[in-house]
Amino acid sequence: MNRSALARLSRWMKEKGFTVFFIFRPENFAWLTGGGDNTVMVGEGVAWLEVREGEVVLHTSRVEAHRLLEEEVEGLDGTVIHPWYDIPTPKGPSDLEHDLTPLRLILSAEEWNRFRVLGRDTAAAVRVAIWAAHPDWTERELSGAIAEGALSRGIQPLVLLVAGEERIFKYRHPLPRDYSLGRLCMAVICGRRHGLVADLTRIRSFGRPEAEVLYRKVLEVEAAALDATRPGVTLDEVLSSVREAYHALGRPEAFEEHHQGGIAGYRPREVLALPGDGTKLAAGMAVAWNPSLSGAKVEDTFLITEEGLENLTFDPHWPTVEVAGRKRPDILRS
Questions:
Q1: What is the CATH number of the domain that holds 67?
Q2: How far is CA 304 from CA 179, 223, 226, 233, in A?
Q3: Across residues 249-275, what is the average pLDDT?
Q4: pLDDT, the chain, mean
Q5: Which one, out of 47, 180, 191, 226, has a CA that is 20 to 30 A from the CA of 306?
Q6: CA distance 82 to 77
Q7: Which residues span the domain enclosing 75?
Q8: Mapping DSSP to helix (H, G, I), strand (E, B) and coil, where does residue 292 land?
Q9: DSSP H or E stretch at residue 180
Q10: Cα–Cα distance measured from residue 166 to residue 322, given in angstroms and rounded to the nearest whole number
């Protein structure tokens, strides 16, 4: 059980005047239980939590109870097991109607450690698959290799995008198709394990050198975002820096062509950065910026600390290039 999360939720409940609160959503279930998973089918919970006076009780069916108690949750104050054919609908305030995102944004030291291991493993899964790829592989073959690497590490791909040479210049969100990779490919993953989600993008060139020019430009935009990312700065202020960087490149339209990322954590985007958003960044939050141009994108997941940014998805085995004093993933060249 995530006791710091429970304390935060209990304070919020007191402010709202709630004596009981129900947790259904998978991201909140994972947050409160310290990484537990209440899903069988993606996005749909088979259990919920009842929070009352600082105590947490699990509700589930007889079908799921044994597995959940052995493998997903511990430190509960009680369990209520319902017949699979007669599962009640609890009455009272819940996270289906109240957004708990603000409570989840600042991560605890225990969550930082889980995130570090997740980030490292997610980056390794993508690297191994892309290194093994050949130009005649299809996008679906590469996505399958990435999914295999992720799932074998206990990571669930919530988002898995792959574009080869023919589609990387067309689409920002290329769902894998049966096109050959050709001379250039991009892979994007948002991988979840124990509730947290690591976001990253990697690019490989099999002999398309002009892609490097685009990629360097994207790295300049990302550098502006990372330079602006520090405690006390608002999402709007980061986006202003991003917009200015696109203008400096002579590509102001790129800001309109794709979102630029935002706060990460228990969803690929806990808070999507929007113009005018006054949400203030703070130490303990995670961010994933993903500036892009047609044909190039960059993305890693960073933890904001008082000392600076920590790259949670840094891969020491992937080639790097230094940009604004930081090691950033380079294009992998064949």
A1: 3.40.350.10
A2: 38, 15, 10, 11
A3: 97
A4: 97
A5: 191
A6: 17
A7: 3-103
A8: strand
A9: none
A10: 29
